[in-house]
Amino acid sequence: MTFGLAMRITKLKLHTTVILMLLSACWMSPATADTLDGSKARVLSDDEPLSIILMIGDGMGPEHVKLGRWVEVGPSNSLIMEQLPFSANVTTCSADSNVTDSSAAATAIATGVKINNSFVGIDPNGVVLETIVDVAQTFGKSTGVVTRTTIQHGTPAAFMTHVANRNSYQEITRQIIEEAGVEVLLGGGSRYFNTSEIDAMVDNGYSFVQDRDELLAVTSGKVLGLFSYDHMPFEQGRDFDESPSLSEMTAKSIEILSQDPEGFFLIVEGGKIDHAAHDHDRVDTALELIAFDKAVGTALEYISDHPNTVLIVTADHETAGLTILGHTLSDTLPSDTNEESANRQLRIERANNITVEWGTTYHTATDVPLYWKGDVFNESVETVDNTDIFTAMNTYFMSSPLPTPPPSLFIPVAVTFLAVIAVAIIYVRRTE
Predict the structure, then answer these.
(1) I need a labelling partner for 178 at 20 to 30 A (CA). Which of 39, 214, 369, 372 fits?
(2) Total domain count for the chain?
């Protein structure tokens, strides 16, 4: 073989290699992503997209979980959230205080950035922050926000809006309608919507529902559910026929959002745990915690059959410095064989037989629990910051390929690819 022929063969191999590399870069979707600890997150199934269900028990500290456990399953057993494979603690300080409020803590979870108390989705310099909802929508995923407070409240608002004062409810409502693009919105807060704003949502393709039966009748599409004028009622006084449970709201959201072939992000807030703790009401605190745990069970049922959906359960902060001191509980526990009204009465009686102490009427800096199922955190991690939750979720979604371009883009891409091949061939032939 002559030196010139050898060089031509080498050039041909080089061009072929470059072309194959370009093809690989264009066609290969990532199968792994860095997790919080630098390991690799596994995409467990190539047949379904990546989705995240994030559940926040507002005000839920470790003692709140303990109270719910003692009432529902007894001191020696575990709630559903406690049975998730992994757990850790979460630090919660805001940018300007060791003791955070809900809007600052939720923003840290939603964006990965510490902000000042009472701000929503805006950092201390006034910069609008990208949320995990925005990230999900970038990947073409559907999104949902579910709460038992008003949907304009600090925690849900942090995932969809950006204001300098969490009490700017009318502006938050405007942004929800005009900018957020969230497909499923369920909670209270009809007082902040006027008739024209509801009409605008309906004109934009939303089903508008106001009670349990109307919600359960919806099977697809976008939905706005406003089930109370202000916050939804405490579980202790909930009308089982009129007002949907948090578990039912979670189930319906998953049913609708999971129809998206690109996957989904869903945030579910047990917002009334915080309200009950502020009131130093152990019965309402226990019942709200248990209702939240039932919703966790609903999410877990879905995840058991969908390994590419991860479940993260945590809190924004601890409320009221709760301490469980003791009990005079019987062995009689709530049961699936009982009527729901009978279970509720039994829970009330059991909560009243637990002795508690409250340290404050506000929030504390106590670390809150983190439970999860899926490849989002190092299994051996013991403590994370609330901003790390965003990092983990964002990294998980980053292992998703971007949405497939519309068909009109395929022709110019194909022409460009063929042109590259033609140029390479002509170049090789001219050097022969």
Answers:
(1) 214
(2) 2
| Catalytic site residue from 102, 190, 207, 258 | 102
Element (H, E) at 172: helix 169-175
Are 265 and 136 within 8 A, CB to CB? yes
Residues 21, 141: one domain?
no
CATH of the domain at 182: 3.40.720.10
| Catalytic-residue membership of 102 | yes
Task: Clarify whether residues 353 and 380 are in a common domain.
Answer: yes
Same domain for 143 and 281, yes or no, is yes
DSSP 205-260: TEEEE-SHHHHHH--SSEEEEE-SSSSPPPGGG--TTTS--HHHHHHHHHHHHTT-
Residue span of the structural domain in which 16 resides: 3-28+418-430
Q: Which amino acid, one-letter code, is at 146? A: V
Residue 409, in any domain of the structure: no
H helices of 117-228, in order, are 132-138, 154-158, 169-175, 195-203, 212-217
For 260-308, write each residue's pLDDT tens digit.
999 999 999 999 999 999 999 999 999 999 999 999 999 999 999 999 9
Residue 119 CA to residue 364 CA, distance in Å, equals 18
- pLDDT tens, position by position, 52-62: 999 999 999 99
With both helix axes pointing from N to C terminus, report the angle between 340-352 and 282-304 in degrees, rounded to the nearest 10: 130
Average of per-residue pLDDT values in the chain: 88
